[in-house]
């Protein structure tokens, strides 16, 4: 779960920023900006200055009105073939923009047979729940194309148990599971753990799980920790973590089955559950299936 830059992405919406300093050519989308108490004079279309000291509560149809007071939208630029950023600046945002420009030129515009159908919707066959760790990249590991997998990444790839309480609770992973299974109709759900997982190490080494967000989250895997300590209690921590990384996947698979709409589909054979563990030390992927036992099927 260690990464210098966090990126939030959504398949159905985009977030961008606008810059009053960029050239008119770069400002290909003049959507306007809402700015509060900002001491600069902007030439961005849609902005009006009400005083020499700055812009006060200026609103137009565009982005930024929901930012907290004292913040403004800056550096909004559309990145496409004409983007003239400095890819070698050493700034990771410039690197990302250059990466997208390359993708646009060499992939997006070259493969309309892939991208055109995706404009009207998605129908992925599989959902993957992986760790947010920067070293785990499901699309690269599995050679996936856009539209092929609905992917959720969280700390230690944990899935909480079904909890129908809604007040002041944000069920991010649960919402993704519901959408993938009931709306998209994925046929297979994979939970993929990995080697040297910081979230699992936190689970194995923390004693107080209630004092911060990480502790509160990784304690979902406590049954895996208990199993690990009972079976591997005399082993070094590294071996315990490797075992727990995989058993925590099984905890998440068990929790997936606590969602009624998942359990029902699994019992009917409409959805299959898989566990995976990616070891990036040895370049090894271990895969297994969590299937109803014959006794359950015959019951
Ligand atoms: Zn991890």
CATH architecture of the domain at 123-298: 3-Layer(aba) Sandwich
Cα-atom Rg, whole angstroms? 23 Å
Order of helices and strands: HHEHEHEHHHHHEEH
> Care to count the β-strands?
5
Q: What is the CATH topology of the domain at 123-298?
A: Beta-carbonic Anhydrase, Chain A
| CATH class designation of the domain at 123-298 | Alpha Beta
Distinct ligand kinds = zinc ion
Order of adjacent strands in the largest pleated sheet: 2-1-3-4-5
- Report the oligomer: single chain
Residue-averaged pLDDT, rounded? 83
> Which overall shape is indicated by the principal axes computed on the Cα atoms?
globular
Could you list the spans in which at least 5 consecutive residues all have pLDDT below 50?
A: 1-5, 7-59
Q: What's the helix count?
A: 10
Measured as a percent range, the helix fraction is: 25-40%
Spatial gap, N to C terminus: 42 Å
Please outline the major beta sheet.
Answer: 5 strands, mixed
Strand content: 5-15%
Q: Superfamily at the CATH H level of the domain at 123-298?
A: Carbonic anhydrase
């Amino acid at each position: 779960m260690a990464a210098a830059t966090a990126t939030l992405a959504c398949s159905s919406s985009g977030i961008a920023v606008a810059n009053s300093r960029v050239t008119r050519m770069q400002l290909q989308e003049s959507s306007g900006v809402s700015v509060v108490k900002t001491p600069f004079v902007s030439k961005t279309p849609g902005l009006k200055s009400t005083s020499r000291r700055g812009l006060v509560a200026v609103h137009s149809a565009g982005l930024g009105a929901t930012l907290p007071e004292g913040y403004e939208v800056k550096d909004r630029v559309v990145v496409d073939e004409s983007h003239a950023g400095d890819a070698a600046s050493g700034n990771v945002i410039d690197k990302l923009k250059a990466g997208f420009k390359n993708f646009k030129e060499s992939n997006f515009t070259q493969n309309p047979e892939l991208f055109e159908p995706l404009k009207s919707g998605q129908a992925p066959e599989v959902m993957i729940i992986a760790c947010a760790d920067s070293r785990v990249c499901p699309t690269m590991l599995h050679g996936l194309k856009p539209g092929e997998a609905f992917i959720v990444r969280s700390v230690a790839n944990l899935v909480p148990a079904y909890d129908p309480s809604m007040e002041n609770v944000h069920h991010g992973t649960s919402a993704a599971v519901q959408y993938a299974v009931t709306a998209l109709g994925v046929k297979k759900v994979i939970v993929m753990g990995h080697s040297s997982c910081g979230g699992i190490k936190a689970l194995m080494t923390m004693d107080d799980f209630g004092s911060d967000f990480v502790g509160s989250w990784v304690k979902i895997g406590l049954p895996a920790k208990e199993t690990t300590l009972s079976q591997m209690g005399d082993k070094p921590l590294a071996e315990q973590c490797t075992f727990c990384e995989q058993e925590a996947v099984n905890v998440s698979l068990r929790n997936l089955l606590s969602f009624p709409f998942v359990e029902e589909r699994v019992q009917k054979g409409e959805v299959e559950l898989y566990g995976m563990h990616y070891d990036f030390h040895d370049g090894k992927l271990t895969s297994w299936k969590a299937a109803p036992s014959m006794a359950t099927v015959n019951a």
